[in-house]
Structure formats: C-alpha cells, structure tokens
Amino acid sequence: MAYPANYRYTKEHEWIEVDGAGGTVGITDYAQSSLGDIVFVDLPKVGDKVEAGKIFGSVESVKAVSDLYAPASGTVTAVNEELASAPEKINTDANKTWMLKLDLTSAAEVDGLLSAADYEKFISEETGH
Amino acid sequence: MSELQTPLRKTALNGTHRAAKAKMVDFGGWDMPVEYTGLIAEHMAVRTGVGLFDVSHMGDIQLRGPNSLAAVQQLCMNDASKLAVGQAQYSAMLYPNGTFVDDVVVHKLSANDYLIVINAGTREKDVQWVRQVIGGMPGAHVNDFSDYYTQLAIQGPRAMETLQKLTPVDLSAIKNYWFVWGQVCGLHNVMIARTGYTGEDGFEIYIPSDVPTSERVWNEVLAAGAEFGMVPCGLGARNTLRLEAGMALYGHEISDTINVMEAGLGRYAKLDKPEFVGREALVAVEAAGGPKRKLVGLEMIERGIGRDGYPMFTLDGEKIGEITSGSPAPFLKKNIALAYVPVEHSALETELAVEIRGQKVKARIVPTPFYKKPKKST
C-alpha cells in the first residue's frame, strides 16, 4: 500500500496530516499489518494534551499491544469514536482511519518527521527486505 | 538466542507459506507462518468450518522392539499398557522432580512399536532425554523420525467432510484419539489420526516430507475444503484456539519449573503404575496435600487484555502469580487468560487483579476449558 505523500511519519509508525494549525493522526499500514487483527484502541479524551514523541495511547491486536506516540504536540480536538466499536477499520484502511485530531502547538514541529519516501526506506531497512 | 548461528529450520511447506504471503515468525527455531489472511478469520474458520495447519515442525520419536512398552511406561506418565493398536493418548515425559520435559501424544502403532509426537521447540532436548532414560534398555530401539513426516492438521466441524473427499477410509469410524493407516490423496499407508490442538473435531495426517508431495497434498486438502470455507491457518490461530480450549502450551503452562499437579494434569499421571520418571515426586506432592499453586482460567471483567507474563494480584494488592497465556478469545469474544496462583486464591469466581501496563484491572476465575465444542446432535 502506498504511503500518502502529504502525510508525515514517525519511526514508531504513526502518520500525521497537517492542515493549517490542525493535525490528524493515525497509524501506518505497516503498523497495522505488523500488529494483525486490531481489537482495542485506547485513546485520550477531547481536551487532553499530547506531547511530541510521548505516548498518547495504545493499540492492541489479538497477538500484541503497542504504544502510540504523538507525532506532534497539541490539544486533542476530536477522537475517532468509531474505533471503540470497530477497531478493525484500522486494518481495513490505515491511511484513512484517523485516531485523533489535534490543535497543533507548532505546525513546524512536523517538519522534523519522515516524508513518505523516507518512511518507506525506513521500514524496508527495519524488515531487512 | 542471538548466540545461535543456526539458520531457522523450514518445513517442506515453507515455500508454499511464503508464496501465500503468510506472515512468518521464528517459533522455537522454526520459520513458521503466524497468520495468512488474519488471525481472527483463521480462528473462526476452525470453529465454524475447517482450517488447515502445517504442524510438520512437531517431532516424532519411534520406540520399537520387544521392550518398547516398558520404555514408554518408564518415560511417560500416562499408562500406555491401556492402549490398543491404533489408539493414542495424551501423556508427558517428566524429570525426576515431577516437572515437564515435554507433553506428548503416544500412539501405539503395533505391539512393539510406539510413536511419540513431541513439541517443536523441545525436539533435540526430548530426543536426548529419551536416549538418556532408555538408551541402555535392551530391546527398546529409539528412532528420531521428526524429519520423515509432513504433518498436517485438518481441524473444525467440517474437517471430516473435507478429508473424506481425499480418502477411501471411513473417517467416521475413527474415534477421537484413535488412528488408522490408509490412502490419502493417492498416497498409501498414511497415518490418519483423529487428534488435534484446537478444541474442535479434526484429523492429523502424516505424509512423506518431500516438497512436491507435501505441496500437492496441502493444495488438494485446501481445494477439498474450499466449499466449507477452509483457509490455511497459522500459529497465531493455533495458539488462540488451544487457549480457548484450555490446553497447555510448553514454555507457558508447562515447563521444567512446573509440576504435573500444579498444571492440573494429574488425571494423566497414573501413579498406580509401578514406576515412571517423576512418579515419586508426584506421589510426594499428593502426600503433602496437593500442589501449593494451581493453574486457573481467568476472564477479564474490566476493560483490558491480560497477556503472557503479566503479574497477578489479590484485590488487596498482594502479588500472587503471573499469567502464562492471555489473549482476546476470538470466538468467545472475551479476554481470557491462564495463570498460576496460590491454591488459597484459586477458587472459582474469585476476583483478582491483573497488572496491565501499570494499571490494575479486575479478572475473575472461571472454569476451564473456556470453550467446549457443541455436542453433535447425530
């Protein structure tokens, strides 16, 4: 699956799409594929603050649990409530299934993250293919 | 394990798994498929239809000769003298202190010929142990046949209909934990056993381990099961299926630090047998009033998934044990676990806490198996 060029990526496999001062966050297709069937997503509440590089929640598949790391700092303005009852949507389309919307502290913070091309290179090195 | 330079071992179906884009993992030194299309779909196929597993990584030790029964009796805790030719039994090889070398299935092939099916991760250790215990026994010859077979498990309520298309043998005549030899996919003298590790009806077949034969039979079985929704299944589903069925896994519920009575497998240890390795230790455990800790089934009652290795506490905060296997149960749609806890905290309905990533989450002790297959109405 292609990684959208307008997103930025973390080495912990989250993506962020920036629109002005807002950011939308999800996990990558590589992450959902590595986890397998996702059964549970633990997310912060609207109004909570998240900090770049820090854990903001977790995602669990049948096999494993994985922390979620904030790609950028900001305040949570929306949480994808659908994931409480249908976390498997992330498996179906990780690129479009968002988890959080953020009011970003600094949109420039995102510049330090990986581009789609760099992320693809990073995961190909990580898997050794 | 990084000091091990040995490359991962592969079953004859490795290329088939990789061509099917299965996700592969290192399982006890074997490059095995953990899932194909998805663990939950594979799990559900076995509960509601039929699934196919490559379990060729399991080992097979043959004990042959006039003293083979005596050898099996010395090595294994169950009573193999009760077996008829064509019958199998769940058993275990124990250390003198009553802990597990491995859990096994003993098959009586003929009067002087037994096949012991062993776990993959313990193959070398098991073979060495067998040679150590009975190496000097006259009339009991040990053969390691582990690489001779491709072992396929066809599991699920539609397993019999699937396999029946590929064999003239009347499969309905094979009782649970019995086996026959017959033609399968045109191959003669295939061992067909009504055994498995999923909590469902099913069969395990033992075919020659060359790649062309293994691939041909794998594909023919999948084609035969297609109308019942058959899918290839990986070790991920194998694990969740056996956990729902409350079955032990070596390295988790059973190991060389856990004895038979603690594991709740005492009914398979025939202490009335005059002798077997580990017997005296188990007699001593019973004489002391039973084990001090017990394996219990847990169901999470608060939000959270207890997983392997997570610590267990009383509701007062006293640490009392650890989860040995824990997972979401795809068919039961609950979060379940097996754990060792002190006997005084092991009563059914007892509420305990699991520490999940720093947070205490409540769980309740429930009966095992968590899942029992429905009784057939016929």
Strand runs of chain A, count: 9
> What's the level 1 CATH class of chain A?
Mainly Beta
Provide the domain count of chain B. Answer: 3
**Unreliable segments of chain A (pLDDT under 50, ≥5 consecutive)?**
none
- The CATH topology name of chain A reads OB fold (Dihydrolipoamide Acetyltransferase, E2P)
What's the architecture of chain A, going by CATH?
Beta Barrel
Number of helices of chain A: 4
CATH class of the largest domain in chain B reads Alpha Beta
Class derived from helix and strand content of chain B: alpha+beta
Descriptive key words:
heterodimer, A: 129 residues, alpha+beta, OB fold (Dihydrolipoamide Acetyltransferase, E2P), 4 helices, 9 strands, 21% helix, B: 378 residues, Gyrase A, domain 2, Alpha-Beta Plaits, six-stranded mixed beta sheet, six-stranded antiparallel beta barrel, 8 helices
